[in-house]
Amino acid sequence: MQSGKRSMRRIITILAGILVLVMFTGSTAYGANAKPTGKMNINTATQQELAWFLWRNGLGNAIDLSENIVSYRRSNGPFSDIRELREVSGITDHEFDRIKLWIKLTGETDYRPGNERPTPYYPYPGAPAPYDDQPNNRYPNDEPYGPWRLKP
């Protein structure tokens, strides 16, 4: 009877130790949702760096925007104020607001993204829907997204 209690205690102790180990290991591995740190220098960043930066911050047309930023920089020289970025074709006020905290004009780029995943980009608001091969006459003009969705 005594050995049965000892083995049961030993099993419970081992399981409790494993549970504590898993709890602490999981919290350090995934840490709290780390926020981005540092800033991206938009005057010295390459087109690829800008595309990556814009995509990481949830701007869906990141490649086009990065090309527009680089061509604007070539034709007008380096940016003197971050608000000048609004003059770049394709940068709306909403997109500027998403990245303004993470850009700078001088110094070295030290931007590090957070752990969160960037938001996916869909050309229509909402999740994509499959397109039927055969017309089903449920939507006007057989649109896959229906009349309640906005067109680009």
Explain the overall architecture.
The structure is a single chain. This protein is mostly helical. Among the domains are: 1-31; 40-104, DNA polymerase, domain 1. The chain has helices at residues 2-30, 47-56, 62-76, 93-99; strands at 40-41, 103-104. A two-stranded parallel ribbon has the order 1-2. Residues 113-152 are annotated as: Disordered. It comes from anaerobic digester metagenome. Pfam families: HHH_3. This is ComE operon protein 1. InterPro entries: Endo/Exo/Phosphatase_dom_1 (IPR051675), RuvA_2-like (IPR010994).
- Structure annotation, total helices: 4
End-to-end gap: 76 Å
Low-confidence stretches: 27-32
Summarize the biggest pleated sheet.
2 strands, parallel
Offer a quick outline of the entry:
This protein has 152 residues and is mainly α. Helix content is 40%, strand content 3%. The chain has a two-stranded parallel sheet with strand order 1-2.
